[in-house]
Amino acid sequence: MHHDIRYALRQLVKHPSFTLIAILALALGIGANTAIFSVVNAVLLRPLPYRAPQQLVWIWGSNPKNEIPHEVASYPDFNDWREQAQSFAGMAGFTTTTVTLGGTDGEPERVPAGSAIGDLFSVVGIEPVLGRKFLPE
């Protein structure tokens, strides 16, 4: 066993270009594997950071006339669903959009934004860091 290890080390020292390529290939492979696992772990393996994430469901509206299978539901539809729902402990809605922010001293900038209705924070089981939750009105 000692002889095999010494022979391998001698060969690596004797052929530095092969050694460099082998080390570079191992480093790239390990780095790519780590990066992919980090993404898969964050997106698929780790549970959502909400209370009882296995009980959360997503409900869409649909528009078959315009061939849109999933679209944001209207506020009147949401209110009807919330009033008639018997299987849910709570219901909340949100949508994402972009808004343009601009001040007197700079160029306007488009930034991601969102709006929420209902008791969103209570439904997902989180508390705001600053301020208070939304009021029912």
If you had to describe this structure to a student in words, what would you say it looks like?
- It is a single chain.
- With 137 residues, this protein is α+β, with helices and mostly antiparallel strands.
- The protein folds into two domains: 2-45; 53-124, no CATH class.
- 42% of the residues lie in helices and 20% in strands.
- It is built from four helices and four strands.
- The chain has helices at residues 2-14, 16-45, 75-84, 120-124; strands at 61-63, 68-71, 92-101, 109-118.
- Strands 1-2 form a two-stranded antiparallel ribbon. Strands 3-4 form a two-stranded antiparallel ribbon.
- Strand 3 (92-101) and strand 4 (109-118) form a beta hairpin.
- The longest helix has 30 residues, at 16-45.
- It is elongated and about 80 Å long.
Largest sheet: 2 strands, antiparallel
Stretches where pLDDT is under 50 for at least 5 consecutive residues are: none
The end-to-end span amounts to 77 Å
C-alpha Rg (nearest Å): 27 Å
Total domain count? 2
Q: Categorize the overall geometry.
A: elongated
E-strand count: 4
Average pLDDT taken over every residue: 87
Helix share bin: 40-55%
| Element-by-element helix/strand order | HHEEHEEH
Question: Helix and strand layout, with pairings?
Answer:
Layout: H1 2-14, H2 16-45, E1 61-63, E2 68-71, H3 75-84, E3 92-101, E4 109-118, H4 120-124
Antiparallel strand pairs: 1-2, 3-4
